[in-house]
Amino acid sequence: MRLHSMAAYCLSGGSLDSGSAACLNVLLEHGSAPSPTHPESSPVHEAAKRGHVECMEILLANGADIDLENPQLGTPLYAACTAESTDCVEKLLRLGASVHLGRAQDTPLHAAARRSSVRVVELLTDFGADVLRRNRGGERPMDLAAPHSPMERALKLRKGPSSLSQLCRLSIRGSLGRKQLHAVSSLSLPDQLSDYLLYR
Q1: Under CATH, to which class is 162-200 assigned?
Q2: Where are the domains of the chain?
Q3: Domain 3-160, CATH homologous superfamily name and number
Q4: SS3 127
Q5: N or C: which end of the chain has fewer CB within 10 A?
Q6: Phi, psi of 194 (to 5 degrees)
Q7: How far is CA 109 from CA 1, 99, 103, 105, in A?
Q8: What is the DSSP string of 68-112?
Q9: What pLDDT digit, counting tens, does each position of 46-74 carry?
Q10: Measured CA distances, 188 to 34, 47, 57, 94, 169 (Å)
Q11: Do domains 3-160 and 162-200 have the same CATH topology?
Q12: Position 180 confidence tier, pLDDT thresholds 50, 70, 90
């Protein structure tokens, strides 16, 4: 069985049901790559779209690319938004996934506007997603939401400029970069400010 097939088997639960993280750990311990190239998917995409937060964390901790764009599924964040996997969306954002990368010019917010809950839109915009950004077809996320729906209302509410504190948070996180976000906890900052920067 090829690695991608084995990882997909683990992520789908296989015969292990809730033990897919254990199966994944065994594969990684025996030298499997966390981001094998496959034209249709990757283990981190499978974990994101199936809602397996723990498996996704394991793969990312072992070197999987958080912003790996697959031609069919987009980035893991895009796949999680398309699958309406709110827990995976939140975890990916907290770990530093880009809200601007999706599938081609379609952003995760475009995917959320088509399919996901208002909570996903709130998460994406809190992490800096642009409600006015247009995709290849010239559509903004609010153009994709059903008219007069809670989704359209949520997008319209997020249309205005961000607060100064939000802009500062995004700027600090951007300056630190994904790999240095953990350093916020070690800075001489009040706990409340550290928590704010880390979205706690």
Answers
A1: mainly alpha
A2: 3-160, 162-200
A3: Ankyrin repeat-containing domain (1.25.40.20)
A4: coil
A5: N
A6: -60, -45
A7: 36, 8, 11, 11
A8: PPBTTTBSHHHHHHHTT-HHHHHHHHHTT--SS-SBTTB-HHHHH
A9: 889 889 999 899 889 888 899 999 888 99
A10: 35, 36, 28, 21, 16
A11: no
A12: confident
- As a dihedral over the C-alpha atoms of residue 18, residue 20, residue 23, residue 27, rounded to 10 degrees, the angle is -170
User: How does 125-163 read in b/e, with b if 16+ C-beta sit within 10 Å?
Assistant: bbbbbbbebebeeebbbbebbeeeeebbebbeebeeeee
Burial of 92 (0-12, 13-18, 19+ CB in 10 A): buried
Q: How far apart are the first and last CA of the chain?
A: 41
CA distances from 169 to 47, 128, 159, 199 (A): 28, 10, 18, 9
Write out pLDDT tens, residues 182-200.
788 888 888 888 888 888 8
pTM value is 0.81
Task: Average the pLDDT over 23-37 and give the result.
Answer: 69
State both tokens at 157. Answer: 């509410």
